[in-house]
Write a structure and sequence with these properties.
There is one protein chain. It is built from twelve helices and five strands. It is an alpha+beta fold and 495 residues long. Among the domains are: 93 residues, no CATH class; 33 residues. Helix 8 runs parallel beside helix 10. A five-stranded antiparallel beta sheet has the order 1-2-3-4-5, with no helix packed on it.
Length: 495
């Protein structure tokens, strides 16, 4: 490997690792902010939180990689240009395209890696992440009994506490309604002046140690089922315990197979198979609707014979029938029947349209996901074609100008991708065109900047635009003087 290649690669790897880590951190923070309210207060342990963050970091790799490539390319070639190393390379007779080659080979390798990652790792990571996120979101919040409010999250119990002491264990004025045995009213009530609350057996059970209270229990009179009589039992206690299961607060694992239907959980082969199956289903649905449509009209029109040479044969036409005198009550019946038939046809058409639309949306979503396996990988190469020449033109390193430029192009790519997906899902755009639109537009920018870099353009230098503006102003002043001179000499104008 030549010294030039080592120099360029050394300037690339440092910014790439840093920017990729920063972008990953930003996306993880976005996830935390997005789902904070739904997962906060859930006693799920650090291990489960760690799993969520790990899966989140994995599924953000295809999104973070193009941005990291763009930013690191800008910074590496911007640094080379800022410290005149790129100028020295050009002075030695080495073209700028040769300087782009080492990082270009690395980016091609990253593109292949991202494609493999999208096809093999992403379906697994999406399945793990969204299934675990669903389990966490549906998990009950941690036990939190507040003063003066009935706590109802513990199945079978309603608990009210008058006062909670700072230690979190000591309670005063406790009321417990026990509905575990029967749902027919408040038949079992426990009152206590004070209590101690704690968990046992690795937080699987909640214990209330009660002091100075009464236990009230009402049982229906089983000897007289036809009467309203009941037995009322009161037990006074100085010290007793109540043990309640906390199984309802455990994290319940949902079968992951329930989430495999989503397109993001499938690889290229599965997506292709599902797309073909869905398209076949759409075609079958259309044929079924076409074949069933004539049932709305067979009551009114007779089919024309195949061997008929003319539509105007002998027979009774509808005009002759309309000229007949029809009683008023029959007219009302005919109008009502016609309206009913028209509404039936309209309702059927709207239903068929809705069914076809839903099925076509599923087809479009599946095809979009298939294309995105490729587009997110190719985006790395496209971003390099923007970042490398643009960095050599700007000649600014660090996190200033490169970050600003990278954000602009990333937002452009993100907005175009989201808008294209929306149009494709709604059936207003061809799926391949919508999926590849962002890459196509950004590729145009990349080829433009590459051409400017080969010409050693001063595209972003203020002096160039200042000189151009001064030339335009000078031409404008010259034109204005000529116009003023001609206005003062009309005879010259005539001549």
């Amino acid at each position: 490997m030549r010294k030039l290649d080592k120099l360029v690669l050394r300037s690339f790897w440092g910014p790439f690792v840093v920017t990729f880590s920063v972008v990953e951190f930003i996306f993880i923070m976005r996830f935390i902010m997005l789902y904070f309210e739904e997962i906060a207060g859930k006693d799920i342990g650090l291990f489960t939180y760690g799993q969520l963050l790990f899966y989140c970091s994995v599924i953000t790799v295809p999104v973070a990689m193009p941005l990291a490539v763009l930013l690191s390319s800008l910074m590496s070639y911007g640094n080379l240009g800022e410290f005149f190393e790129l100028t020295a390379i050009k002075s030695a007779g080495i073209s700028v395209m040769r300087a782009f080659r080492p990082i270009g080979i690395v980016v091609v390798s990253l593109t292949v890696f991202v494609f493999w990652f999208n096809n093999k790792v992403m379906p697994w990571a999406n399945l793990k992440f969204y299934s675990l996120l669903y389990d966490v979101k549906t998990k009950k919040a941690a036990l939190n009994i507040k003063e003066g409010i009935f706590y109802t999250d513990l199945p079978g119990y309603r608990i009210k506490v008058d006062k909670k002491f700072p230690d979190g264990r000591s309670l005063k004025g406790l009321v417990i309604y026990d509905h575990t045995q029967s749902n027919s009213g408040n038949r079992k009530i426990t009152l206590a002046d004070s209590a101690q609350m704690y968990t046992i057996l690795n937080e699987k059970y909640l214990v209330f140690e009660l002091f100075n209270g009464n236990d009230y229990h009402e049982d229906p009179d089983r000897t007289s089922p036809n009467t309203d009589q009941s037995d009322f039992v009161r037990n006074k206690f100085a010290h007793t315990k109540m043990v309640m299961s906390l199984k309802a607060f455990d994290l319940k694992k949902t079968d992951e197979d329930q989430f495999r239907y989503a397109a993001i959980m499938k690889n290229l082969e599965e997506l292709k198979s599902e797309s073909d199956s869905l398209e076949g289903d759409v075609e079958a649905t259309v044929k079924s609707m076409v074949f069933s449509a004539p049932r709305y009209y067979t009551y009114h029109l007779n089919p024309i014979p195949a061997n008929s040479k003319s539509l105007y044969g002998k027979g009774r036409w509808v005009d002759s029938l309309l000229r007949k005198e029809v009683p008023s009550y029959q007219k009302a019946q005919l109008v009502s029947g016609a309206l009913t038939q028209a509404r039936s046809i309209l309702s059927s058409a709207e239903t068929n349209e809705s069914i076809l639309k839903d099925k076509q949306i599923r087809v479009n979503k599946t095809q979009l996901e298939w294309h995105h396996k490729f587009t997110s990988a190719i985006a790395c190469l496209v971003m390099f074609l923007i970042g490398a020449p643009l960095g050599s033109i700007i000649k600014k390193g660090g996190f200033g100008v490169p970050v600003l430029v990278a954000i602009i192009f990333f937002i452009l790519m993100y907005v175009m991708t989201i808008q294209g997906d929306k149009l494709a899902k709604e059936g207003r755009a061809w799926v391949p065109a919508a999926a590849w639109a962002s890459n196509a537009v950004l590729l145009g920018f990349g080829l433009f900047f590459l051409k400017r870099a080969r010409e050693d353009s001063r595209l972003f230098e203020a002096d160039v635009y200042r000189i151009y503006f001064n030339r335009l102003r000078a031409r404008f002043e010259e034109w204005r003087e000529q116009v003023s001179f001609l206005k003062k000499s009309p005879e010259k104008l005539a001549s």
